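Q: Structure for this?
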Amino acid sequence: MTKTEVTDTEASLLARAQAGDIDAFEQLSGAYADRLFMLLLRLLGNPEEAGEVAQEVMLRAWQGIPRFQGRSSYFTWLYRIAVNEANRALERRARRPASVSIGPDELDLPTPRTDDPARQAENNELRRTLADALAMLPPPLRTAIVLRDVEGFSTQEAAEIAGVTPAAFKSRLHQARLQVRAAIGDDALIAVGG
Amino acid sequence: MGFADDHQWSQRHLSHYVEGDLSHRARSRLDRHARDCAECGRGLRAMRALARLVRGLDGLAPVRAPGTIFDRIRPAGAGGSPAPQTV
C-alpha cells in the first residue's frame, strides 16, 4: 500500500467518523491505539490508570471529532488529547494522599548485556533511579522528555502535541534533562551510558 | 568573562548543546570552557549519556492497548452522531 493510499483511507475514515460513523472512528483511532496506550503508560506509569485514561481519550476524541479541522494530523490531535488527559489524571493523583509512581517495571530500560553480576546490579539500580527521576518531574517536564527523548518526536511535533510554542517546549525539555541529570548524578550516567 | 561566568553558563546550557540548540559562537564558548573544566566536560558526557538512556526506553517490547479502549463510546455513541461537547 502506498503512502497516498494510506492517506486516502484515513481521510475517508475521518470523513465518515465526522459524519457519526462509530465503526469508522474505531478503525481510524484504533490504528494508533497501541502507541497511544504506550504514551499514557509512560506518562502515568500505571497500566490500570493508563487504560482508564485511554478510554477517556477515545471518548473525548469521539465527542470532538466533528470539530476537527485538520490543522494538524489526526494522530497529533489524538496525542494532544492524550497528553491533556494524562495531565488531568496526574493532577487528580496529586490531590490524593497516596500517589502512584512510575515503577521500573513500567519504565523498563534496556539493560546492556553483561555477565558481570556487579555491573548488572549497577544497571538495575540506574534503571530504578531513572524511573524514579522521571516520575518525580512535574507533569509538563515529564511530558516534554517523554515526547522528545523517548518517543522521538521532533521539537515542532512535540510542541504541537504539548500545546505550547517550540521555544516553551524546549525550555521544558532542558529543565527536565537538568533535573533528571541532577537526580541520577554524572558519574552514574557516564558509567552506564557514557 | 571569567571562568566562573563561563562555568555557570555552561552548566545551564549542556542540554542545549546536546540538542544542537546553540549558535556556533555559543557552542564554541562551551567547547572552550569544557576543555579546561573537568566538571563541565563530565557534565557534557553525562548529558549525552542521559539522552541515550532515555531514548533507549523506546526499545521496549510493544505493548497492546486494552481491548476495552472504545468501551465508553459505544453506549453513548452507537448508532448516533458524536455528542457536541468541548474537548
